[in-house]
Amino acid sequence: xxxxxxxxxxxxxxxxxxxxxxxxxxxxxxxxxxxxxxxxxxxxxxxxxxxxxxxxxxxxxxxxxxxxxxxxxxxxxxxxxxxxxxxxxxxxxxxxxxxxxxxxxxxxxxxxxxxxxxxxxxxxxxxxxxxxxxxxxxxxxxxxxxxxxxxxxxxxxxxxxxxxxxxxxxxxxxxxxxxxxxxxxx
Length: 186
What we know:
- The chain is mostly helical.
- The protein has 2 domains: 16-126, Winged helix-like DNA-binding domain superfamily/Winged helix DNA-binding domain (Arc Repressor Mutant, subunit A); 135-186, no CATH class.
- It has helices spanning 20-44, 50-61, 68-75, 79-91, 113-122, 126-132, 137-158, 170-181; strands at residues 95-99, 107-111.
- Helix 1 packs antiparallel against helix 6, helix 2 (50-61) crosses helix 5 and helix 3 packs across helix 4.
- The chain is globular, with a radius of gyration of 19 Å.
- The termini are far apart.
């Protein structure tokens, strides 16, 4: 399927009921799933999945020192899901967990040398760059603003049911602070 960025397409998963909100959300979901398939193909060359690469990115962002709870909050996943993923990553030698010496009941997660090498490989993001190349700088900024607005509103919808939803906006706040201060992420 060729993409002509100058033409307009009318995506309607539900063409019967003419529910524009549903069709827009379906388009967002379908696009995300297609991104996921393409990225999974790209990462499989390095023996990684999207979630493994995401955990390594969180560890890098958190100065290679995070708790499983922090990882679950950053990735918007339930703690038990992250715990099972960390078990597999530790078994494969990508991360190591240890008890915090100051807080005995706190577990910390760090990347191993193998994990750092895998993180470096995960920075190969040609799929993302290829797909996003169809957008102008203005379109990218519009998309960023719209998606952030939708994300924050969706988190408001689920925050009573999902424990991590109330902490999720910290990513946006951090990015906004860094963008306005001109400081790179830590």
